[in-house]
Write a structure and sequence with these properties.
alpha+beta, 4 domains
């Protein structure tokens, strides 16, 4: 069956199940748009027992004040993001599937970790509403699951009539309880993830992340080049070897069956690092800065330079590393004509290129250039030593050990790891750490528990109806003295937030 057939069959089956549930199972099922609410009494006794602890009085009283404050700062964050999206080129706008934090829809969220995290986040969110209701002696009528082919949420149903009869402050505390629980769980799980990260050990060397050089595979760890020891990828950027010469590269690989051009490489030896086996391979390849990509309609693109070529010289000056390239390149101005000498398949080629303007290029990408860019040249090539992109295992580990090491920006980078497909790490990059896969499983589990609780909590503190933050705003006692003014304020704030959200969706795609 094709994917389209599977989707069509699943939709048809769900329509049948939906009809049967509504027609014959009204006692247990209720419609909720295209989804079904499965009502049960499971968990009500647990909610009853847990709610008797006096701790909840302090918890609810504290977050009654904290949630509106967080809601205000979340609006500030939305305004800041609305400004940032003005500089995002259309080509870099994320697909709309990234907007929903749902596993199976959002490609950045792994299915298994996503489902586990979502069940915990939504389940505890709803349970917290139920605990708050019982703390104020409000009956919990039912609990249950929200189904749309698969479970996509949970709910706790307090008696609405009893809730409406309570004073605004009590109602606000009940609504605040859900996001408050998510925030607490996010704090606990991020601390657990940070603690586990301190037991992860990096393997010294330059870790290959991507390659156009057929001699190397992602996940391999370069140990030396022509007997120069490599402990970090940055060392490769400062090597001074003759471009185009053959060099000997020693790498560690987790795969003993590497083939280059159909020829199997034999591992000369292997080592154990913390119980993880790495095979030692000796590879011969051409040294230099490889042209790994060309920007469309750039000077280099129009000169027909081939991707995979090695840059040998610029106007006769040898280019042995990236720092040297920049030093030579920025001697020239926009409009200057230069000669690039490259090597492709062992053959030297010369290309005459008229340099463009970096200022004009940035403008064409929707990026605001600085005045200094007017005098800078533009070539339009991506250059990587040995034709490789590298993964900095040390910086990554420092980040997951201490997300706030770079201040609030570090936390944003930490939360954004899934957008770069770096949490969980690709299988090949796991071997840049000599640590048990079980340790990584724990690390990733706690990370996704943090991530989804953080996302759900931060979303629900927004003071917009029908989110919890909106109902907290509606039930602030001072606003309830004038119902007309309250409704006007809530509607205005909701429209402003909705505008900011839609702005971030639409503007990068114009």
């Amino acid at each position: 069956m094709s994917l389209l057939d599977i989707i069509f069959t699943a939709i048809l089956a769900w329509i049948v199940v939906y009809y049967l549930a509504i027609r014959f199972g009204k006692k247990y099922f209720a419609p909720y748009g295209p989804a079904l609410l499965l009502k049960t009494s499971i968990g009500i006794r647990t909610i009853e027992r847990v709610s008797k602890n006096k701790f909840w009085d302090y918890f609810l009283s504290a977050f009654y004040y904290i949630i509106p404050i967080l809601g205000f700062f979340t609006i500030i964050l939305l305004v800041w993001e609305a400004v940032l999206v003005l500089s995002i080129p259309k080509s870099e706008a994320l697909p709309l599937t990234y907007i929903l934090a749902l596993p199976g829809i959002n490609p950045a969220i792994p299915i298994l970790y996503g489902i586990i995290g979502l069940i915990v986040a939504v389940g505890l969110h709803e349970a917290s509403h139920g605990i708050a209701a019982r703390r104020f002696n409000i009956k919990v009528k039912s609990t249950g699951l929200l189904w749309l082919v698969i479970p996509i949420g949970a709910f706790v149903e307090p008696d609405e009539d009893e809730v409406k009869q309570r004073d605004p402050k009590t109602r606000a505390k009940i609504f605040a309880a859900g996001p408050a629980m998510n925030i607490i769980i996010a704090i606990i799980t991020i601390l657990a993830a940070i603690s586990i990260a301190n037991y992860i050990t990096p393997v010294p060397g330059a870790v290959v992340y991507g390659s156009i050089n057929p001699s190397f595979q992602p996940g391999e760890i370069i140990q030396s080049i022509n007997n120069v020891n490599i402990t970090n990828y940055s060392q490769i950027f400062s090597l001074s070897l003759t471009p185009g010469q053959m060099v000997n590269v020693t790498v560690l690989s987790h795969n003993p069956n590497i083939q280059i051009n159909g020829i199997k490489l034999s591992a000369s030896n292997y080592i154990n690092v913390n119980g993880v086996k790495y095979y030692i391979l000796d590879i011969k390849t051409f040294y230099g800065l490889y042209i790994t990509g060309l920007i469309k309609n750039s000077p280099a693109y129009n000169s027909t330079i081939k991707v995979g070529s090695i840059l040998i010289s610029l106007n006769g000056q040898y280019i042995d590393n990236y720092s040297n390239f920049l030093k030579v390149f920025y001697k020239y101005k926009p409009g200057n004509v230069v000669t690039l000498t490259t090597m492709f398949n062992g053959k030297l080629n010369n290309y005459t290129v008229t340099l463009g303007s970096r200022y004009n290029y940035l403008l064409s990408q929707g990026v605001t250039p600085s005045p200094g860019d007017k005098n800078l040249p533009y070539l339009g090539v991506y250059l990587d030593p040995l034709g490789l992109e590298f993964f900095d295992q040390y910086s990554y580990l420092n980040l997951i050990r201490n997300p706030l090491n770079q201040g609030i920006l570090g936390l944003f980078i930490y939360v954004g790891l899934p957008l770069h497909f770096e949490m969980p790490l690709p299988d090949a990059l796991m071997y840049s750490y000599a640590s048990s896969p079980y340790l990584w499983t724990l690390e990733e589990t706690f990370y996704w528990l943090f991530w989804l609780n953080f996302a759900l909590g931060l979303t629900n503190v927004l003071p917009i109806v029908p989110l919890d933050g909106g109902y907290v705003l509606m039930n602030i006692p001072a606003l309830n003295k004038n119902e007309k003014l309250r409704n006007y304020i809530v509607a205005t704030v909701s429209l402003i937030i909705l505008f900011l959200i839609m702005w971030q969706i639409i503007i990068p795609r114009l």
